[in-house]
Amino acid sequence: MVDGEDPIQGMAAGTIERMRAAEKALEASEWSAQCESARTEYPARDLSILDLLPKGVSKGWALEQLAARLGVDRKETMAIGDNWNDLEMLEWAGQAIVMANAAPELRVRAKMRGWKQAPSSDDDGVAVILEVALKKMAAAKA
Predict the structure, then answer these.
(1) E-assigned strands of 33-119?
(2) CATH number at residue 71
(3) Which of 14, 33, 37, 52 could pair covalently with 10 via S-S, beta carbons 3.0-4.6 A apart?
């Protein structure tokens, strides 16, 4: 990626088996020097999404860029995620929150790192977390 240019993202979707094979093919290809992938898996649906991005670009990179552009300190950021493509974003954020329906291994990692857990998506977990955060902010201002 050339500095100052917006990154281009590609996506491929299919069964978990096919996207794991696609990821291995990418790693073995001539494109591996310029492109990396982040795989998201939903085993209950046998669905996988492969995000194709320039080297060094991730949700974490994007959050860092946005925070810098807005003048927001890292400590003031919150990231909520449910899968492996969210890992860099969760690691960068000042407050990381993992959904209860996140990939099991990601929930284990979150627990080891002291990250909070939100209720599942089916239980409006993101809304619950945001409501709590907004109430805390309002109480702090009062």
Answers:
(1) 35-42, 47-54, 78-81, 95-99, 116-118
(2) 3.40.50.1000
(3) 52
